[in-house]
Amino acid sequence: MSWAWQALRALRLRLLGPTKELVGTDQFGNKYYRVPKHETRAERRFVEAINRQAYQYEMGDFPIEWEAWIRKKRNDPPTIEEILKNENYREEMKQKIKDVSEKDKLLQAKEYKEGLVAEPAHTQVKGHASAPYYGKSEPSQDPASTANTFQPGSWIPPGSGRSHNK
Fold first, then answer.
1. Which of 22, 23, 39, 114 is the most buried (most CB within 10 A)?
2. Which of 66, 61, 71, 64 has the alpha carbon at shortest distance from 32?
3. Where is the composition biased (Polar residues) (predicted)?
């Protein structure tokens, strides 16, 4: 290399820092790069995503292993074999969780049927706790008394089951 070329390269390295290095790609086509440590800055890691607009990103667009590498949670970039192995493991775990959940539901149904366990109470709450008629079936449509004519215990809500005999 000529001395002029070396001088230009050294000047560019001094001003701009080292160039990016392609580290790998994932199964979605995203490309992962690193910019080596330079005297003026630390090592940088980044991804050139296949979906360029930020609004197009969704959960799972980047494999967990690559995301850990970008965030410097791991030193070495993942291999495609490692990613596929971990993906298969996660799918196996999902299936096992589904199987255990189904077995648990069947066991609970059996225990409910045999009377070993009480079934959970199914409650229906109507209204909101801040409403004046919370817990009642519905607000009363009867006219309200005024302060001048009100007699304590003179009105009993319909359907309360108490008799009003004096």
1. 23
2. 66
3. 138-152
What's the rounded Cα separation, in Å, for the pair 68 and 71? 5
Q: Whole-angstrom Cα distance, residue 166 to residue 162?
A: 12
CA 125, CA 135: separation in Å to the nearest integer?
7
pTM, two decimal places:
0.52
What are the distances in angstroms from CA 82 to CA 18, 76, 78, 88, 114? 29, 12, 6, 10, 48
Amino acid at 80: I
Q: Residue 77 has what DSSP assignment?
A: P
Cite the DSSP H helix spans in the chain.
Answer: 3-16, 64-70, 80-114
Report d(CA 113, CA 91) in Å as an integer.
33
Residues in the chain: 166
Residue 97 to residue 103: CA distance in whole angstroms = 10
- As a whole number of angstroms, the distance between CA 2 and CA 62 comes to 43
Which tokens hold the place of 124?
């229906």
Q: What is the pLDDT of residues 23-75, one digit of tens each?
A: 998 888 889 999 887 666 788 888 888 876 666 667 777 888 998 998 899 99
Please identify which residue in the block is written with the tokens 């799918």.
91
